Amino acid sequence: MAPKPVPGTPSWLRETNDRTALSLLLEHGVLTRNRIGQLSGLSKPTAAQMVSRLETAGLIHAVGEVSAGRGPNAASYAVRTDRMLGVAIDIDYHVMRSTVVDASGHEHPIATTPLSRAARERSPEADVRTAIDAACEAAGIASATVSAVCIGVQGALDPRTDELSFIETLPGWPKKGIRKHLEDELGLSVQIDNDVNLAAIAERTDGAGRDTGGFALLWMGEGLGLSVDQGGSVHRGASGGAGEIGYLPIPRGAAELDPAAADLQDLIGGPTVARLARGLGMRGRSYAALIESVAAAPAADREALLAELAPRVAVGVVPVLALLDPELVVLGGPTGSAGGARLAELVGAQLRKAWGSSKVVVTGVPEHPVLRGAREHLLAEVRTALFAEVSRISA
Fold it and tell me: Which domains are assigned to the chain?
């Protein structure tokens, strides 16, 4: 690796200018040399040198021409997005969803791949390779250009030991050494994170948590999860297992809501929500199908389901308020999204009775939040790799 340029030297100035030009192209898209000069405040000759260096290095390319009035047309430039690519992957018990991520932040199609539940038919490298190939085929991109993946799983990865836990939804995946195993087998940079943590990253970037000092995301799907954002950083815990809220026992005062429930999973997990929905006449063979039917249900039935759910959800939120006192509680996951603003309103009313006050809102990222969070991670990674190339060519 080349030594880092010393501030004030010609190489430092070149690197600073080249980084500025690349940043402007990533922010604004297609630009001419003159426009880069105007936006950066640098002279036309300096802007021309920056563009020449970046183009020679293969980091940008000419994509067209712009009329320059009386003179010849000016070439317009854009970042070469095929230089550094990643694939974001969301794996649950039934399917994988995957999408290509490039430095421009352009959204590519999402590929959905059904999964076998038989461990003998699965391996982590086969699953991830299938997801990469599907995403690249959907985007019309060669999979050989992918250098990094970020995988959202319904489990936790201990950063100290590279060991997965709570991985009932990943048959065929080993618990130990999983990240190293994938990197060795695939030759890629691999990041693995809990799906709810990635959803919280998306909530911070694009959703309800955008302008807050911090928030707690309660994920309600077939399983339960909690992610806590503290000033833009997700709290993962020492072993990566923070947020496994479904295992919390039901307090004695809430036993009347469901005498058979032993923990929060029993109280508001997917099977229970499905049972309650069926009891109100909603149809569907699975939890996912029933949740989809909630929006189309008669208003009275929908209101009855949400009224039944709200005090149950409040039981799960109270410990979060007691321990963390977040500025905001976000209801996410399929149940949270289906319940919408009305469920958030009803839960907030329950909490005002039990706790005094708390702001509860519905998720601002109802579609593919896990993928969007993985995408945000990879967007930063591929851009960092591009800027590392700038440092190399400017030295």
Answer: 10-80 (1.10.10.10), 85-198+373-385 (3.30.420.40), 208-364 (3.30.420.40)
